[in-house]
Amino acid sequence: MVDPGQDEDTGEQGLTGIELTRHRSGRFFGVLHDADAGTATREQARDSLVTLHLPLVEHCARRFRNRGEPYEDLVQVGTIGLIKAVDRFDSERGVEFSTYATPTIIGEIKRHFRDKGWAIRVPRRLQELRMQIGSATAELTQSLGRSPTPRELAERIGCTVEEIVEGMESSNAYSTLSLDASSDDSDDGPGSMLDVIGVDDEGLANVEIRESIKPLLDQLDPREKRILLLRFFKNMTQSQIAEEIGVSQMHVSRLLNRTLTQLRTSLEAED
């Protein structure tokens, strides 16, 4: 039975942690690539290689912590990359397995972020085109000394201008911002997006009524119109209005009731 914890190979005596991992890794790959070994033995060697290099996966996953994805999920995704690296590794090339596996593990984690990070699902070709546009934009900006045009990007990538535009527009689907997300625009400190975005104007519901009543107001006596202005626009009481225009409160009340009745009757007649 092949086990990464086995110590029966006398060549492991006195080896440090890194040296021991390299030694066992070489031994397990030898079994994995041994055509004469049985299927069960090779599968055990493969499992042992994955177990042996899980610390490498955890090390890579820690680089992507606090980016919105659970650490356990990143380790799981990175392990998939590790398995792919084990299956593809050629020990005869003289390259350390950890050197070969690290880009594969990180690539799998980044691919996970690309797939999970899209707020609206878009085709994979647009996701990949977006990445190509980003790289080409950086290169052309440096060489041209300005931002490249869509046509220049299309020529660099080898696609049409329409595809470039489509790829740029797909970037809007990459992420969304919660309405509860904090905003630094407030003088009192961060607030939510709900504090800074527009809301429905409650006055919109009364626009039609105001427009309908304007010509009727123009037909009123100047004193009646002034009483309405003081009462409903300046929020004065009937006593304050009476003092303002020099009449009794009772007279103000009668004028208000008569004017409102007149306006109501006129509006109903128009309807």
Automatic annotation (TrEMBL):
<dbReference type="InterPro" id="IPR007630">
    <property type="entry name" value="RNA_pol_sigma70_r4"/>
</dbReference>
<protein>
    <recommendedName>
        <fullName>HTH cro/C1-type domain-containing protein</fullName>
    </recommendedName>
</protein>
<keyword id="KW-0804">Transcription</keyword>
<dbReference type="Pfam" id="PF04545">
    <property type="entry name" value="Sigma70_r4"/>
</dbReference>
<keyword id="KW-0805">Transcription regulation</keyword>
<keyword id="KW-0749">Sporulation</keyword>
<dbReference type="Pfam" id="PF04542">
    <property type="entry name" value="Sigma70_r2"/>
</dbReference>
<keyword id="KW-0731">Sigma factor</keyword>
<dbReference type="InterPro" id="IPR000943">
    <property type="entry name" value="RNA_pol_sigma70"/>
</dbReference>
<feature type="domain" description="HTH cro/C1-type">
    <location>
        <begin position="234"/>
        <end position="257"/>
    </location>
</feature>
<dbReference type="InterPro" id="IPR014322">
    <property type="entry name" value="RNA_pol_sigma-B/F/G"/>
</dbReference>
<dbReference type="InterPro" id="IPR014284">
    <property type="entry name" value="RNA_pol_sigma-70_dom"/>
</dbReference>
<dbReference type="InterPro" id="IPR013324">
    <property type="entry name" value="RNA_pol_sigma_r3/r4-like"/>
</dbReference>
<dbReference type="InterPro" id="IPR036388">
    <property type="entry name" value="WH-like_DNA-bd_sf"/>
</dbReference>
<comment type="similarity">
    <text>Belongs to the sigma-70 factor family.</text>
</comment>
<dbReference type="Pfam" id="PF04539">
    <property type="entry name" value="Sigma70_r3"/>
</dbReference>
<dbReference type="InterPro" id="IPR007627">
    <property type="entry name" value="RNA_pol_sigma70_r2"/>
</dbReference>
<dbReference type="InterPro" id="IPR007624">
    <property type="entry name" value="RNA_pol_sigma70_r3"/>
</dbReference>
<dbReference type="InterPro" id="IPR001387">
    <property type="entry name" value="Cro/C1-type_HTH"/>
</dbReference>
<keyword id="KW-0238">DNA-binding</keyword>
<dbReference type="InterPro" id="IPR013325">
    <property type="entry name" value="RNA_pol_sigma_r2"/>
</dbReference>
